Automatic annotation (TrEMBL):
<dbReference type="InterPro" id="IPR013815">
    <property type="entry name" value="ATP_grasp_subdomain_1"/>
</dbReference>
<dbReference type="GO" id="GO:0005524">
    <property type="term" value="F:ATP binding"/>
</dbReference>
<feature type="domain" description="Pyruvate phosphate dikinase AMP/ATP-binding">
    <location>
        <begin position="311"/>
        <end position="362"/>
    </location>
</feature>
<dbReference type="InterPro" id="IPR008279">
    <property type="entry name" value="PEP-util_enz_mobile_dom"/>
</dbReference>
<dbReference type="InterPro" id="IPR036637">
    <property type="entry name" value="Phosphohistidine_dom_sf"/>
</dbReference>
<dbReference type="Pfam" id="PF00391">
    <property type="entry name" value="PEP-utilizers"/>
</dbReference>
<dbReference type="Pfam" id="PF01326">
    <property type="entry name" value="PPDK_N"/>
</dbReference>
<dbReference type="GO" id="GO:0016301">
    <property type="term" value="F:kinase activity"/>
</dbReference>
<feature type="domain" description="PEP-utilising enzyme mobile">
    <location>
        <begin position="439"/>
        <end position="518"/>
    </location>
</feature>
<dbReference type="InterPro" id="IPR018274">
    <property type="entry name" value="PEP_util_AS"/>
</dbReference>
<keyword id="KW-0808">Transferase</keyword>
<protein>
    <submittedName>
        <fullName>Pyruvate phosphate dikinase</fullName>
    </submittedName>
</protein>
<dbReference type="InterPro" id="IPR010121">
    <property type="entry name" value="Pyruvate_phosphate_dikinase"/>
</dbReference>
<dbReference type="InterPro" id="IPR002192">
    <property type="entry name" value="PPDK_AMP/ATP-bd"/>
</dbReference>
<dbReference type="GO" id="GO:0050242">
    <property type="term" value="F:pyruvate, phosphate dikinase activity"/>
</dbReference>
<feature type="domain" description="Pyruvate phosphate dikinase AMP/ATP-binding">
    <location>
        <begin position="80"/>
        <end position="295"/>
    </location>
</feature>
<keyword id="KW-0418">Kinase</keyword>
Length: 545
């Protein structure tokens, strides 16, 4: 590896480089040079948390087409790959013990879900039997292969994801796809391979090195994806930051009933309460949770079924806060009962949570009074006040108030109350916002591609998705009320209607989201604003601490 910043390739969890060999010393690691995700992976490895080994292509590979092309050349990362292979005792493309890799983006500033990730790189017709023999799990192998073909088709070849989703829906016929057996997954993989060849005009690449090369290039190119550009615009981030690429050995949350994938916060990001806030899916990979296309569960099932992994997760969360001094948003995988940490970053939070967390961390001795004051500077009483729904709603014309029952419920991803007209897409949301109307965005999935539409809305309601999906995280950061995973919601975009059980509403009808209680109301409801008396008193005491 080179000492040149433009050629910086970093190792994580592969053993320390030989300090006597200058070629093995990359440019000095920092969040700016290797991206915040990889920087925190390195920090987690250094404090003893179990992190899958990785090599990282720094942010200097992102600025232009020539740099991205150089990043895709195998010679650029040959030493990094060799280090992974030596560390794991596996080799990329090996027919007996194939090394499989994830390829992840990571900018110097956290941009949740705005760029691409590819999992299971290295699987092909020739290496799949080796994974079956090595894992003893044919279902895992075929599930990983079909996932790779679909995600690679969407991210690298530009094939609409719906082409693959339709095949999944047809085969499952309403069942949870995690119940598919290996024979069904083999059939699905074959269908995906045929779709890839037809849509891309070429077969799915069977050379693992070519897969890795194209995956690296595609992840770097996703820095310019419309949703990433929109996120930077909304958050006033410079386009010059660039993204790094982390190439990491795979761990498998889809290895069976004692495996799974999860996302969590070390404290409640909506209220700041000091308890773990976790979504977890058994027998799943990480994208199932964060993509917003699946509904996930809280931590109770994980704690019940895998108590050892849950205890390890609690210990890891405690270590992260002790070491990093702030509430963390982390991703993890459990494979056959063993916990692996995949990412951590300072968690996005509401203003109320920001105040509570800073005050609690100060009281716990993790941060100084000065740091707590810096973190709470600018939080006004109005920002910290809480809007809540009153049990009844005033009827038009001043008539007597009548109870207004909820028409549905969902998981709260971001608290507060939002009321507005239903809109199903960005064009409608922006048009009604321009006309002076408040808007509630309704979507089937909580996807980050909706960031521009969400910017024009007061709140987001989805039929599927987890509280910790990237879109929910972004909604919370933007101060939007967000409810996800409303099981009774059915959206018909062609008819421009939303059905909640027996009730059908049309685009333009008024809806209220109660993000405090996770309830949904037809029409407007009466609300009151509650001042956080105790929280304000604690902030006053902090000011003189």
């Amino acid at each position: 590896m080179s000492t040149d910043h433009d050629s910086a390739v970093y190792l994580i969890g592969c053993g320390e480089p030989d300090a006597a060999t200058p070629a093995n010393i990359p440019a000095p690691p920092s969040a700016d040079t290797m991206g915040f995700k990889a920087w925190n992976l390195m920090r987690m490895a250094h404090i003893g948390l179990r992190v899958p080994p990785a090599f990282v292509l720094g942010t200097a590979f992102c600025p232009d087409a020539d740099s991205r092309a150089r990043a895709g050349r195998p010679a650029t990362w040959a030493e990094g790959l060799q280090a992974l292979e030596a560390r794991c005792g596996q080799a990329l493309g090996d027919h007996r013990r194939p090394l499989l890799l994830s390829v992840r983006s990571g900018a110097p500033i956290s941009m949740p879900g705005m760029m691409e990730t590819l999992l299971n790189i290295g699987l092909c017709d020739a290496t799949l039997p080796g994974l079956v023999r090595h894992s003893g799990n044919p279902r895992l192998a075929w599930d990983a292969y079909r996932r790779l073909v679909a995600s690679y088709g969407e991210v690298v070849a530009g094939i609409p994801g719906e082409r693959f989703e339709t095949q999944v829906a047809a085969l499952t016929a309403g069942r949870d796809e995690r119940t598919l057996d290996f024979a069904e997954l083999r059939t699905l993989t074959q269908q995906h391979l045929a779709t890839y060849a037809r849509e891309a005009g070429r077969p799915f690449p069977q050379d693992p090195v070519a897969q890795l090369s194209e995956a690296i290039t595609a992840v770097l190119a996703s820095w310019q994806a419309p949703k990433a550009v929109a996120y930077r615009r909304v958050n006033h981030l410079p386009d010059t930051l660039g993204t790094a690429v982390t190439v990491q050995t795979m761990v498998f949350g889809n290895a069976g009933g004692h495996s799974g994938a999860g996302v969590g916060f070390t404290r409640d990001p909506a209220t700041g309460e000091p308890h773990l806030w976790v979504d977890f899916l058994f027998n799943a990979q990480g994208e199932d949770v964060v993509s917003g296309r699946r509904s996930a569960h809280g931590h109770d099932a994980l704690a019940s079924v895998l108590p050892t992994a849950w205890a390890a997760l609690r210990d890891a969360a405690h270590q992260l806060e002790q070491h990093l001094g702030d509430m963390q948003d982390f991703e993890f995988t459990v494979q056959d009962g063993e916990l692996y940490m995949l990412q951590t970053r300072n968690g996005k939070r509401t203003p109320q949570a920001a105040a509570r967390i800073a005050l609690d961390l100060f009281d716990e001795g993790l941060i100084t009074a000065e740091v707590a004051r810096q973190r709470t500077a600018g939080l006004t009483p109005a920002m910290l006040s809480r809007t809540v729904v009153v049990a009844d709603a005033a009827r038009a014309g001043g008539q007597t108030a009548q109870p207004l029952p909820a028409i549905g419920s969902a998981a709260t991803a971001s608290s507060g109350v939002a009321c507005g007209e239903i809109a199903f897409d960005e064009a409608r949301a922006r048009a009604r916002q321009a006309a002076g109307a408040a808007v509630i965005l309704l979507r089937r999935d909580a996807e980050t591609s909706d960031i521009a539409a969400l910017e024009a809305a007061q709140g987001l309601l989805t039929a599927r998705g987890a509280r910790t999906s990237h879109a929910a995280v972004v909604a919370r950061q933007m101060g939007k009320v967000c409810l996800v995973g409303c099981a009774t919601l059915h959206i018909d975009e062609a008819q421009r209607t939303a059905t909640f059980g027996e009730l059908t509403l049309r685009e333009g009808d008024v809806l209220t989201l109660d993000g405090n209680e996770g309830r949904i109301y037809a029409g407007a409801v009466r609300t009151v604003v509650e001042a956080p008396t105790e929280l304000l008193a604690r902030l006053d005491r902090l000011a003189t601490a």
